[in-house]
Each structure stands twice: as structure tokens, then as C-alpha cells.
Amino acid sequence: MRPSKSCMLFGSYHALNGIKDSVVLFHSVIGCNFGTLGPHFMNDMASIRQSSTVMSDREVIYGGESQIRKAVRLAKQLYSPRAVFVVSGCVPEITGDDIGGVCADLSSPECPVIYVPSPGFLKDEYSGYEDAGRILADLAEEGKECGGPCVNILGPAADDPRIDNDMNALRLMLGPQIRVNYVSSGCSFNDILCAGSAGLNIVIGRGTGMAERLKERFGTPYRVIDYPYGITGCDELCSAAEEAFGVDLSSVRTGFRQKTADSLEKAFSFIQGFYAMPAAVVADSARARGMERFLTRELGMDVCVRACREEMGDTEDTYDLIRGSEAAMIFGSGYEKPLAEVMEVPLIRMCYPVLDRVTLSGRSYAGVEGSVCLVEDMINETMAARNLKGGLYQ
Amino acid sequence: MKKICIYGKGGIGKSTVVANTAVAMSMKGLKVAVVGCDPKADSTRCIMGKRIPTVLDCVLLGNKGEVAFKGFNDILCIESGGPQPGTGCAGRGIASALKEIRDRDLLSDRDAVIYDVLGDVVCGGFSTPLREEIADDVYLVTTADFMAMYAANNICKGIRHYAVTSGIRLAGIIYNSRSMRNDISLVEAFAGRVGTAVAGKIPMSSDISKAEIKRKTAVELFPDGDAASSFNALADYMLSGKAVRCIPEPVSDELLEELCLQNGTEF
User: Fold this and answer.
1) Chain B contact for A69, CB < 8 A?
2) How far apart are CA A5 and CA A309, in angstroms?
3) Contact between B88 and A57 using a beta-carbon 8 Å cutoff
4) Which A residues, 96 through 115, put their C-beta within 8 Å of a C-beta on chain B?
5) In CATH, what class is A267-357+365-393?
6) Rounded CA gap, A121 and B267, in Å?
7) How far apart are the CA of A71 and the nearest CA of chain B, in angstroms?
8) What is the pLDDT at residue A390?
9) Alpha-carbon distance B23 to B219, whole Å?
10) Residue B13 CB neighbour total at 10 angstroms
11) Do A12 and A132 form a contact (C-beta atoms < 8 A)?
């Protein structure tokens, strides 16, 4: 049995880790910190803003409340954070530490200490993300103004591959007419306080918990979209913004199409080789659907297996499906590397976690440059593959 | 080594039974140990004449030092210890302390060890003495009150859970007559239903309370009294090898209520 998703604590972490001036403090055993830190370290080792109370037998038996106080004090000294999010793991939620009470006692207007219950035995990572989002939405303050049309982007997480580049691409797409305020993968605590002032919440897959709560509190509408890969992804995002704000982004769309065509033209023959090529996509639902849409509608590929992690049971069952298919390329995470190696097909790493690549350049997979980078990687990985490069010369 | 475990409803007199029975056994020439498995850590108070440092305090809080102390008649006294009320996980504490005791091999030279376990089998931690071959015989202390019987029946469920896969057995019911009604018939009926017998009867004696206020056992302070006599008899029963050991068959709530009504418990 290989579970396809992680626990609630991972979801909370992904919802919170993008708040760049805050600290995530795990009140749990050491593994919770270690497990989340690994993929984050590969993504941005210059910005480690997480710590742990490192519960041991002593804290289990005698209670870990004093350890929270100590850890929060140290976190404040070490990071000077704008806020501390105390994310609880399984053990203190079983033993019954009064985490909320301690957090309330340690909280101040200058540095709120916010309790985020996240026992892994209770819910999975997707539910954890939504629950944490609701807590964030409750922090948004009334009366904040962001000046002009403004959107929040919910769903992406700080440790998603190339996420900063992708979000910059979305900003370019929407701006200068529409300002992007809060982005879940990279923001400040103040952006959350201002989250209620946006005119639209764009939910990329997950984030409906926060969006619903913002709608309840501020009346902000929200729109759930798939990950905006390619021209169709751009169209969906622009349409959502046009409907919400009554603006015209047709020039953005036209420019996107033209620039994409100009760039890809140089490899048109190789791109023709992708036509009808079978592929498998394993990712969170927003990315899986967005990628399937891009591959089928824009490249004419055949997505023979599309697996959304939220809906998957045993990962091995999905892998069996892929192994039994004609897939000549896999789109997924670093987890799919052994599968791709066994099948001797290229792996395009497009979702969390990626543990064997770093992204230091501005390469994205969203936006104009993103489409070009994505196709570039597909061609190069295919040419690098042992058996399948001939497919490009049909 | 005779390994005995005492369970029962909170406040029913377990620690009194444990301390006095341990003293009685020691006076028969046995090398005895008492292990308190309660965060209150007061099981050995009347044997030591004082409170002693606990295993968990020494191991987990860094208070270096001994965890096993010899009290009256060389009885080895150990307290597991645990968290303050309302904090932490006392069950895990018991499990952790018992592991430490075993790792240090503190009990291997004893002829008899008596474990005094907190109130009820509320979680896996308090069941630790029932597994891992820590105890062989379990005795339940009860009065003739309905709620005490209810707790005893509940504990039988816990014992049964482990007994079916190990050698641990319910070995008897200890009747403490210190209650509104002093009538052993209900306890005898209950013992028969679950498959065992009444192992001893503790009288309502002022010897016990007089001794406890002086941090002594009744067996030590009033060796010729009726309480001492009952504890001596209980010790003999436990050591005799004639205890009615069983995998208990807990009764239903309805049957327990019926037993109480049939045997004259006044409500």
C-alpha cells in the first residue's frame, strides 16, 4: 500500500508556508518538521521559516504546553516574525494539550500566535489545506483597501515546483489592469489581512475553504479554475477576471497566442511528433486537469491515464494503470521517477514534490514563457530518452 | 515470582489492599515489591512512611537518582509517577515507567510483586500491566455499591481482552466492606458470574484509617487486629496457588443491575 496523499498537517503547512514573514511552528514529534522540510529545502533553502517543539516521551507524558511557550519564544527571537502559526500534530491532539489556550496567551497584536489544529489521523492533506485556509480568512480585516481591481490567488503552495515563476507569469497576464494581492504560495501576513478587499478570489484547484469564508465575511465572489497551462489556461483565467471586473483582456490573449506561436514555430516538426502521443498525468486535480487540457487541446496528445491525487487510493493501483497503458510520457512529481525509469519514458516534473531538481532561473510552466518552457522540456526529455526519440521524427 | 495486579474503581481501597497485603507477605518471609502505577504516586506511602521520587521524574525530568527504595520489612517500593491532573498522558507514563523498571531489572530478585493500578482500564496505557507478561494474576477490589461493581465488570472486559491471547487471568474479587451496605452476597454472586471467587474480605476497621494517618499499614501497626487478620488471609490466598483463575466473562449491564436488585443493594 502506497498512500497517494499525505496527512492534514502537510495541508496546513502548504497553506501557511507561503507567508514569507511568518513562522510555522510544528507542535509535534520531529518527523513532521523533517517530512515537510525535505521538499521545501529543495525549493528554497535560503528561506527556512519553520521549527518544531520536538515532542518526546516527556512531552507526551507530562504535556507539551511549556514546550510550546519555549519554542514560540525562541521562534520570535530567531525570526522576528510577523506571526507564528502553531500547527499541531497527532500526539498533542491525542494527549490533549491546551494549544489554543497557550497560543492565545502568547499572542499579541505585533505578533499573533495562531493555533492551526492539524492532527494527521483526522483528515488528509487536502482537507488540512482547506481548514487552514478558513483560519487565514478569519484573519482578514474589515476596512482594508487595495485600490482598484484586485484578485487573490488561492491554491498554489510555496513548495510547488517553479511556483514563484508561474505566479509572476499570472501577474503579467492580469496586470496592469488587475492587481494581484494575496497569493497563497508567496505573500506577506499583511496581504492576508487585506485579503477581504479583493474583488475576486481565483481558486486554482484547492482553496475553496478560504474562498467560501471570504465570501461569507466580505461577499467576495470566487472562481475555481484549473491550473492555467497554455493558451486555454490563459483564456480561463482572463475570462474569470473579465467577468468579475468588466475589463477587456483581449489584447493579453491575442498577444499570448502570437508570442506562443512565434516561439514554438522553431520546433514545429517536433511538436507535430507529439500529435496522438499517449501520455499519463498524475497530479493534484487542478494541475492534472489543466495539463490534460493543454496536452489534448493544444498539442493533440492522447492522455490515456489522468489520475488526480485527491481521488486516488493506492498509488500502486494508478501505477498499474500507467504500466498497462501505452503512455510514452509521464507528467507528475518526483514520486513518479522510478515508474518512468522502469517504463523508460520521459518524466515531466510538474507538481509537488520534486526532490531531484532545483529551479534557479525564471523558467515557468504557466504564461507565455511557461508554455514554451513546458514544450521545450517535453522535446528535450523525449530526445534524451533511450527509446522514444524516434517518435519526434514521424 | 508471583506477579499480581490490583485494579478497581477509583477510591475503592486498592492502595490500602496493596500496601497491607505486601506487608503481610513480607512478614511471611517473602521478598516483596510494590509498584505504584498511578500518577498520584501514593501507593507506597504507608510502606515507606513518606513519598518517594518517581520513575518518570527521574528518567524524564532529569532528576538523577534511585527509583527503587526499601521500606518496611525490606519491601521494595517503586512509584511510576506521571503528569499533573488534566495534562499529558498518564497512560503513556505508566507504559514508559514499566519499561524503565524492566530495563533496569529492578524486580528480578523478588518473590512477589504487586502492581497498584490507577482506577480503571481507561486506555491502553493503564492496560500495560495486563500485557507483556508483567502480571499473572489480576484481583479486583470492590465494595457492594452498584457503581463499584459496574467498574469491576468493566475492568473484566479489559482483562478478558488480554487474557484470551496471554496467560494473564482474573484470580479473584477482593471485597472491601467499607460502604453503605456491608453485604458480601452481591460480590459473591458477581464473582461467580464472571467465573472466579471472592479472594478476601476487608472489614470496615478503624485500624486501617488510624494506621494510614500515621503513614503505616494496619498489618504493621495493629498486627493482631481484624484488618491485619484479613490481609494475612488474603496474602495466603494469593500465594496458595488455589486461586480461582479464569478468563472473565463480563456480564451485561442489565444482568448486573438485576444482580444488584436480587442481592439487596439499597438505592
Assistant:
1) no
2) 7
3) no
4) 96-97
5) alpha beta
6) 43
7) 18
8) 58
9) 7
10) 22
11) yes
Phi-psi region of A80 (alpha: psi -120 to 50; beta: other; left: phi over 0): left
Q: Do A62 and B60 touch (CB under 8 A)?
A: yes
pLDDT value, residue B266 = 54
Q: How many Cα atoms sit within 13 Å of B18 on the Cβ side?
A: 36
- How far, in Å, CA of A257 to CA of A251, rounded? 10
What's the CA angle centered on A167, arms A162 and A168, to 5 degrees? 100
**Residue B240 CB contacts under 8 Å (≥ 6 apart), including other chains:** none
Distance CA B68, CA B90 (A): 20
Helix axes B14-27, B226-240, angle to 10 degrees: 80
Instruction: Supply angle C-alpha B29, B35, B41, rounded to 5.
Output: 130
Q: Which residues of A316-337 are buried (b: 16+ CB within 10 A; e: fewer)?
A: eebbeebeeeebbbbbbbbbbb
Give the per-residue SS3 of chain B.
Answer: CEEEEEEECCCCCHHHHHHHHHHHHHHCCCCEEEEEECCCCCCCHHHHCCCCCCHHHHHHCCCCCCCEEECHHHCEEEECCCCCCCCCCHHHHHHHHHHHHHHCCCCCCCCEEEEEECCCCCCHHHHHHHCCCCCCEEEEEECCCHHHHHHHHHHHHHHHHHHCCCCCEEEEEEEECCCCCCCCHHHHHHHHHHCCCEEEEECCCHHHHHHHHCCCCHHHHCCCCHHHHHHHHHHHHHHHCCCCCECCCCCCHHHHHHHHHHCCCCC
Active site residue B145: no
Q: Bin B146: left if φ > 0, else alpha if -120 < ψ < 50, else beta.
A: alpha
3-state SS, B198-212, equals EEEEECCCHHHHHHH
Query: How does pLDDT run across A100-148, given as a tens digit for each residue?
Result: 999 999 999 999 999 999 999 999 999 999 999 999 999 999 987 777 8
A8-135: CATH homologous superfamily? Answer: Nitrogenase molybdenum iron protein domain (3.40.50.1980)
Question: Testing the interface with B: which of A61, A66, A69, A99 to mutate, by most B Cβ within 10 A?
Answer: A61
User: CB neighbours of B158 closer than 8 A, spacing ≥ 6?
Assistant: B121, B127, B130
pLDDT at A17: 96
Residues listed for chain B: 267
- Per DSSP bridges, beta strands B76-79 and B68-70 are antiparallel
pLDDT tens, B136-147? 999 999 999 889
How does DSSP assign A294-312, residue by residue?
IIIIIS--EEEEEEEGGG-
Q: Could A60 and B90 be called an inter-chain contact, meaning their C-beta atoms sit closer than 8 Å? A: no
B125 pLDDT more than 80: no
- In DSSP notation, A27-51 reads ES-HHHHHHHHHHHHHH-TT---EE
CATH of B2-262, one of 3.20.20.70, 1.10.287.3610, 3.40.50.300, 3.40.50.720: 3.40.50.300
Amino acid present at A15? A
- CATH 3.40.50.1980 domain position(s) in chain A: 8-135, 150-257, 267-357+365-393
- The answer regarding whether domain A150-257 maps to CATH 3.60.20.10 reads no
- The span from the CA of A250 to the CA of B10, in Å, is 76
ipTM of the complex: 0.82
* Interchain pair B83, A62: CB under 8 A: yes
Vertex B31 angle, CA B26 and B36, to 5° = 85
